[in-house]
Amino acid sequence: PQPQLQTQLHQHPPAKLKVECLEVLKGLQSHVHGWVFNGPVDPVDLGLHDYFDVIKRPMDLGTIKKRLENGCYHELKGFGGDVNLTFDNAMLYNPEGSVIWNMAKELKDKFCVDFENLARKANTAGCLSSDFSDILSL
Known about the structure:
Helices cover 66% and strands 0% of the residues. It is built from eight helices and no strands. The protein has helices at residues 2-11, 14-29, 43-46, 51-54, 61-69, 76-93, 99-124, 133-136. The two termini are 16 Å apart.
């Protein structure tokens, strides 16, 4: 199923993918906690001296938006992986139960629902395999 899924994901028209993903991203960026994740973490400004020791692949919603606008994503999995990475990084670096950890968890949960809806919509349009569970569990 995985190779077939990958093939069908690549067939999703990039322009349509871009519009649909931008809508999902807009919902995250405009969320009450979205501002925290809209730009790259500045470890120097924030005094997070070990940030790059802990976080190997920094990601933020603003970078994802630029990548979408520049046509860098050709499949849902790449977009979903980067959004999840944004929140996973915040949850890895910040202690569980902290304000930032809780914000990241709330937005990640929202994204999981929004992304599943997007994948279902794409599937209804014939763009995805009927089994898209592996693109949701990134």
